[in-house]
Amino acid sequence: MDGPIRLLENTDPATKQMLENLRKRKEKYDSAEKRHYYSIYGTLIIAFIFFSYFYLAIAKDYSYSFLAMFSATLNDIIAVSLFSLSLISYGAMNLLRQQKEKKEKEYQELRCEIVDRSKDLWKREEEWKNRHLIFEVMKQQYDINLYHEKK
């Protein structure tokens, strides 16, 4: 369990465990989001390299005929390799986007559950009055908003 969560007062161990699970899901979501953005940039760079190479090596010389351009492209191993790499990186980008959306959904569901069940998690009067301190720690340390269900 992470330090700030372990040190929370007016919180029972089960609630601390829920907050720890929320922190872990937020961490997984953030890393999935980073990987997705890196894949977007990688795909754009590879596609730019492919189109630049295609224009300089093939399109300038064979622009008089589509069939000649197509044939020259298939005969050029670098063009075929760059095109294949572009397609693979595009597929990987879409796969990483799906993973990011799945992790975001899991994180948001648990966060909303904690917001919905806050009356059950902090039952006693003293706990209920001090829950805003816990919400502040979660917001400041982990950028997790427990005040509202909306993102």
What is the strand and helix layout of this fold?
Layout: H1 3-6, H2 13-62, H3 66-75, H4 77-116, H5 118-121, H6 125-142
Question: What does this 3D model show about the protein?
Answer:
With 151 residues, the protein is an all-alpha fold. It has six helices and no strands. Helix 2 (13-62) packs across helix 3 (66-75) and helix 2 packs antiparallel against helix 4. It is rod-shaped and about 80 Å long. The protein starts with a helix and ends in a 9-residue tail after the last helix. The relative contact order is 0.15. The model has no long low-confidence stretch (mean pLDDT 92).
The N- and C-terminal alpha carbons lie at a distance of 25 Å
Please tally the helical runs, counting DSSP H or I stretches of 4 or more residues: 6
Secondary structure: number of strands: 0
Helix content: over 70%
Biggest sheet descriptor: none
Task: Indicate the radius of gyration in whole angstroms.
Answer: 25 Å
Class computed from helices, strands and strand pairing: mainly alpha
Strand percent estimate: under 5%
Overall average residue pLDDT: 92
The parts where pLDDT drops under 50 for at least 5 residues are none
- Outline: rod-shaped
SSE sequence, one letter per element: HHHHHH
Concise summary:
The protein contains six helices and no strands. By secondary structure, the chain is mostly helical.
